[in-house]
Write a structure and sequence with these properties.
The chain is mainly β and 117 residues long. Helices cover 0% and strands 50% of the residues. The strands form two sheets. Strands 2, 4, 5, 6, 9, 10 and 11 form a seven-stranded mixed sheet that branches. Strands 1-3-8-7 form a four-stranded antiparallel sheet, with no helix packed on it. Strand 5 and strand 6 form a beta hairpin. The termini are far apart.
């Protein structure tokens, strides 16, 4: 079973930046779709961004122009560059592979992102 380890979160002021990393214990080279998700307490986990094996990306409207997802298949790692952060981006961020609309692997521990003064 592939394990996912997210890192890079922290406390940042509004307008700041963070770069999240997600390292998979197994190969992601054959995985078509990788994604970043976030969970705000009291709400359902939401998909933030996805990237295909060939580099096509998609984002939810609230992060378009601010977040950039990328992947390094050789390192089995997916990244999320987050710029111009807002307080409403505060959440625990997770990554996963997606197949037929469902997460493919067990969720990792996530990484906390807090945007506040």
């Amino acid at each position: 079973q592939v394990q996912l380890v997210e890192s890079g979160g922290g406390l940042v002021q509004p307008g700041g930046s963070l770069r999240l990393s997600c390292k998979a214990s197994g190969s992601i080279v054959s995985i078509w779709l990788m994604g970043w998700y976030r969970h705000i307490p009291g709400k359902q986990r939401e998909k933030v961004a996805t990237i295909t094996r060939v580099g096509n990306t998609d984002y939810i409207d609230s992060v378009k122009g601010r977040f950039t997802i990328s992947r390094d298949n050789a390192k089995n790692t997916v990244y999320l560059q987050m710029n111009s952060l807002k307080p409403e981006d505060t959440a625990v961020y997770y990554c996963n592979a997606e197949s037929r609309g469902a997460a493919l692997w067990p969720w990792g521990q996530g990484t906390q992102v807090t945007v506040s003064n």
